Amino acid sequence: MKYRNKVKAFLKKPQNVILLSLAFILVYLTVVPMITIILDTFTVHQSELMRVKGSKVGDLTLYHWGKVLFSSSSKKIFYEPFLNTLIVSLGTCFVAIGLGGLVAWLVTRTNIRFKGIISTLFIFPYIMPSWTLAMAWLNFFKNSRVGGAPGIFTALFGIETADWFAYGPFPIIVVLGLHYAPFAYILIGGILRNMDANLEEAALILKASRGKIMRKITIPIVLPAILSTFLLVFSSAMSAFAVPAFLGTSVRYQVLTTQMFRTLNGLNPGYGYIMALLMIGIGILILGVNQKIIGTRKSFTTITGKSSNIAYINLRNFKIPISVALIVFIGMVCILPLVTFAIESFIMEPGNYSWSNFTTLFWVGEGNPQIANGEPGILRNPTIFNGLWNSIRLSISVAFIAGSVGILAGYAIVKKKGTRLSTMVNNLAFFPYLMPSMAFGAIYLSMFAIKRGFIPSLYGSFALLVLVGAVKYLPFASRASVGAMHQLSNEIEEAGTIQGIGWTKRMLRIIIPIQKSSFISGYLLPFISSMRELSLFILLVTPSTRILTTMLFQYNEKGWSQYANAINLLIVLFVVGSSLIVNRVTGASIDKGIGGH
Amino acid sequence: MPEIRLKNLTKRFGKTIAVDNLDLVIQEGEFVTLLGPSGCGKTTTLRMIAGLETPSEGEIYIDETCVFSSEEGIDISPDKRNVGFLFQNYALWPHMTVYKNISFGLENLKWDKKKIKIRVEELLNMLRIAEYGDRYPSELSGGQQQRVAIARTLATGPKILFMDEPLSNLDAKLRMEMRTELKRLHMETDSTFVYVTHDQLEAMTLSTKICLLDEGLLQQFAPPLDIYHNPSNHFVADFVGSPNINILEARGNNVNLDEIKLDSGSLEFLFAPTTSSVNIRSNQKLLLGIRPEDIEITDKGDIQGKVYSTLPSGMETIVKIDVNNIILTCVVFGGVDFEMGTNVKIAFKSENNVLFDRVSKLNIASGRLM
Q: Which of A280, A422, B42, B292 has the CB geometry, 3.0–4.6 Å to B331, for a possible disulfide?
């Protein structure tokens, strides 16, 4: 009787019910897939029946691990791509933090001009699909040695770009670095904005020089944020697929993700899963290090102070040159790519930028059998419209599920803060972030290709895309929501409880309205992410569920760059447009979702 | 010789004026408090003197040296002004130990290691935080953090010390204790203190001179007791003193030779100025200020009232008395209490009652009530 009452009392609290259900669902959707692929890496498949002597399908084997890690070909299969991944990820961190940190410092601490425009435009590369910049790079700098027609740069100046400059690690690092610089900008800027300016002023009064203040006060205090950024950017860069695929494949520069795409798509999924596991392992390691750093003795919680009266550093004579240089640079990174897409999509024969070569064929043409198999222009092409429609409804469904579940998760996690269940759900909800998108897609493909319990076979269905998207982007929503709930005093809800207001009404009328903009950010980020996502969905789409990004990838693979550029332009305008509208209407923004302030 | 001099100091933030044309001379060795309600410009003034904020107009001199002049374009940076600054939220560096926090300023002065160690230990002992040298700020209580901040500020031995509401984050008991220590510190260090607070009690008890500001304008600059007994206007009278001064609206007329007859509707007084004789217009609208401790509850009193409420605290009792629907506050010293609703008689015993003009709010005269 006593236990029954205890259970009853436990289940009466909504936060307990939410945590319990989430624990079950998330274990099923994240831990089970993990275990599945771990097992899969030890299993004999049909395809390697011949190579593993005397075995049947389903037998246990160490063949895959041995082949990937300890065989004569493992250098080519694993170690080389692994090393490349490390180089690319480290380089990306370097570029992203250097650039993002510098801009964050300029905006929060100096009297630089155009702050509003800078902070709006600088977020763009993160909103835009990551390969946007990669394609722009190709449009600009590709040379004839590798990929047919030369780019705009060569056309304008007549200088053939070098291979290392056009393809491979250098452009990958630059492009990924630019893509994640806003990330660093938001995180470091958030700390700088919250950091009490008195801390610096105190040092100034004690006669420390500007340089010494920077070295001894500002940087050490911002260091945890920099490290966090470093780790997050590192793991994101590590699992990036599209950029290395666009810029590296043509010179056979393989990283783990591109290698994974080949193996998962090709003969031996076991190899791919092993790589995925190793990447997840690195991800978990990174997360652990990150939490260790945040939880040290020198706790930085004392940072929050009122810093209403910041005295900006006067850049004096450098003010105008630096402001202008930054605006020009940001314009080049954010606006120019779009211009190149527009130009490329109007060109008949790639590489020829003379006026007579311009055509509207790829936008509104009826299709010419001699060009691209008679594919009609994208504005009168039913397949494109179908893809656009799929992209939109996919993104809306994913955002709706991830955002709503995220709100509930954040609510329950904060309510039961400190309990084991709450910590577990918090970690489970963050776990998908660490899974490389491509591997995540591959796992869901194998897991839900057959009927499982009450879940029917989902292969080729739209529901599978929604499911994988919702789980993958849950971390964004739950982070935003946990952050929002932390700022909300418990008493605000208790005041409602005392008056006998039911839970649903408390949520809908009190909690959600107060933290509206943060919660909407929790919807916005999954929406934008799935709108521009490629690697998560690339293994899962079938012709009927094709979305814009996968179509873009296919057009690109076929070499129909005009279509690819046109679609790219379409995606970027749609994503940037919708996020600006949401921001204007509701005040929600990307930076709130990432954890900036 | 004057130590700090402000001339026509003005600070505008956009369209709002934070500090309006402030003139102030702070002598060497004084303990001056900038007092006023929040948003009156006191912190801004302090930050401008320290060089953390750039004034819009005016001049600042420290020790006869011009450190800021809008006309001549002089703006000496904070580190060259030789001042110390104690921040409201302490601004301890979270990534440095207590020892490091205190030694930082000395290192900047290129002291050698041994001398630094001696000096830091001296300060740690002086502020009774010797056992916390190796801790980080987040591991200390508010009071301990406060002491570290003071030690850090004192370390370099500045002759001028600025303090921005340094006690506002402490609990009442600790605040009391720190007040005593600050006053001792002022004496021991022989420095000039400029102190910002919104707490009138703190200003009254600590300073040698109070500078009272409201909406960026200087209201009065005088020693605490002068401010208390001879407030320059209604705002000053009302801001200083707890419980608040009683203010009665009245109309006045000159009577006899130099007395004023006051009529506040239900009560009539005769006001005899003790400062100098004053002439007022007939039926001039006035405000009469009577300090609570100047109202005596006595059987010899000739005004009849009823006890409206009492707040006994042991040392004193604050009694509100209803006199013909006017509520007067008075303070009775000692552990006495009154029954609510009983009839009492009151008398006005002091010569420090103040008369203000109701329109200009300015002090007209102090005097006795009869």
A: B292
| Percent of residues, chain B, with pLDDT higher than 90 | 65
Sequence-separated (6 or more) residues with CB below 8 Å from residue A509: A501
pLDDT at B244 over 50: yes
Which residues are B255's β-sheet partners? B259
- A196 at interface of B, judged by CB pairs closer than 8 A: yes
* SS3 readout for A181-210: HHHHHHHHHHHHHHECHHHHHHHHHCCCCH
> What's chain B's average pLDDT?
91
- Residue A265 pLDDT more than 70? yes
Q: Chain B within 8 Å of A292 (Cβ-Cβ)?
A: no
Verify whether the Cβ–Cβ distance A206 to B43 is below 8 Å.
no
A391: enclosing H helix or E strand: helix A382-415
Residue with tokens 């003790």, as numbered in its chain:
B274
Fold topology of A12-42+377-597: MetI-like fold (1.10.3720)
Task: Pick B356 or A487 by higher pLDDT.
Answer: B356
Q: Looking at beta carbons, which residues of chain A come within 8 Å of B92?
A: 302
The predicted complex's ipTM stands at 0.82
Domains plus CATH for chain B? 2-239 (3.40.50.300), 246-369 (2.40.50.140)
CB contact under 8 Å between B104 and A207, yes or no, is no
User: Tens digits of per-residue pLDDT, A371-407?
Assistant: 666 677 777 788 888 888 999 999 999 999 999 999 9
Backbone angles phi, psi at A229, to 5 degrees: -60, -45
Which chain B residues are closer than 8 Å to A223 by Cβ? 95
Rounded to the nearest 5°, which phi and psi values hold at A366? -85, -10
Nearest by CB: A311 against B43, B53, B138: B53
B263 vs A563 pLDDT, higher one: B263
Provide the pLDDT for residue A591.
64
Task: Determine whether the interchain pair A202/B152 forms a contact, defined as Cβ–Cβ distance below 8 Å.
Answer: yes
Cα A317 to Cα A102, A344, B81: the distances in Å are 18, 40, 24
Residue B165 forms contact with A (CB below 8 Å): no
Q: Does B50 touch chain A (CB under 8 A)?
A: yes
Residue environment code for A329-341, b if the CB has 16+ CB neighbours within 10 A, otherwise e: ebeebbeebbebb
Between CA B262 and CA B255 the distance in angstroms is 10
Greatest mean pLDDT range, A56-60, A144-148, A234-238, A578-582: A234-238
User: Residues for chain A: how many in total?
Assistant: 597
pLDDT at residue A295 in the model: 56
Distance CA A548, CA A571 (A): 8
> Which residues, 6 or more positions from A400, have their beta carbon under 8 angstroms from its beta carbon?
A523
**Residues 6+ positions from B179 with CB-CB distance below 8 Å:** B167, B202, B205, B206
Mean pLDDT, chain A, integer: 82
Nearest to A524 by CA among A581, A444, A451, A471: A581
CB of B267 less than 8 A from some CB of A:
no
B89 vs A198, A299, A301: nearest CB = A198
Say whether pLDDT at A307 is over 90: no
Q: Does B141 touch chain A (CB under 8 A)?
A: no
Spell out where B158-302 has E strands: 160-164, 192-197, 209-214, 217-222, 246-255, 259-263, 268-273, 284-290, 295-297
The pLDDT of residue A297: 47
Q: CB distance from A299 to chain B under 8 Å?
A: yes
Distance between A289 CA and the closest CA of chain B, angstroms: 19
Looking at the predicted structure, is the pLDDT value of residue A354 above 80?
Answer: no
Task: Return d(Cα A435, Cα A65) in angstroms, integer.
Answer: 19
| Residues A484 and A515: beta-carbon distance below 8 Å | yes
